Amino acid sequence: MAQLMAPPPPDNVVDLFSGKLLSQLDGEQIIRLSPEYDGLSILYSNRHTDANKLYAMKVLCWALLANGEVIGLVPWLDRLCPCTDLDDPQTGYWEGYYDPASDQLFFDPPPHKVAELESAADYFDAGLDNPNQVVQEIPDTIGTHAMLTGDNDHTLVLTEVLSWRLMNDGRVEAMLINESSVQSTPVLPGDQCLYPASENPRFRYFFQHHIANQIKSEDPVALAAIAMLFES
Fold first, then answer.
1. CA distance linking residue 94 with residue 162, whole number of Å
2. 166 burial class (0-12, 13-18, 19+ CB within 10 angstroms)?
3. How far apart are CA 149 and CA 34, in angstroms?
4. Residue 169's domain spans which residues?
């Protein structure tokens, strides 16, 4: 019996969550990652704290999209976010990329990362069919922490993100350690004891390592900021 194939979605179908056309989302699917090892950062502003001050945050990795575009990614609030998508002046507004070694501001992904991603995508083109197949897993090199609620909503738990896993459908999952399943140490990317933060119903936010350390030391300013975040 001949199999009937579902027709492709028309070009005018809009995704309810993003507000973008489905054809656009197909082109924005991540197909390859490259970790940032040289300390390149983003600069962002935050009018809620100081409208005249810029803040730096290390780029986690660079991503090649199906449409050929290359973007930088950072853990932001509860998701992995393209740097250029930070567009809220109250919580974070992208001002550009920054190289602390040369003190240079730039606005396009570095050419060497673009070349690396394009070359790797050509070499590793596996043509996988399963959307849940792991395409890549890269280590977290910037000390990202995930915040979870504890046994009750009045306690918080900070745990390190060990790695980031690119799935065949373009999802990038933050991988946490299930301590009860550790068979050997050190735990490395790809270990069976890792699980996605998105599958933990107690997951709330990602934090940079210096913010996580302030929270661990019970810094009053950091704790006040966390309280405001949860109230909002």
1. 26
2. buried
3. 31
4. 130-232
* Residue 194 near residue 176 (C-beta atoms within 8 A): yes
Q: Mind listing the pLDDT tens digit for each residue in 153-170?
A: 668 888 999 999 999 999
C-beta neighbour count of 227 within 10 angstroms: 10
For residue 183, tell me if it sits in a domain: yes
Q: How far apart are CA 225 and CA 149, in angstroms?
A: 16
How far is Cα 63 from Cα 65, in angstroms, rounded to an integer? 6
Query: At CA 94, angle to CA 92 and CA 100, rounded to 5?
Result: 110
Preceding peptide of 201 cis, ω within 30°: no
**Pairing mode of beta strands 172-177, 156-160:** unpaired
Predicted model pTM: 0.83
Number of domains in the chain: 2
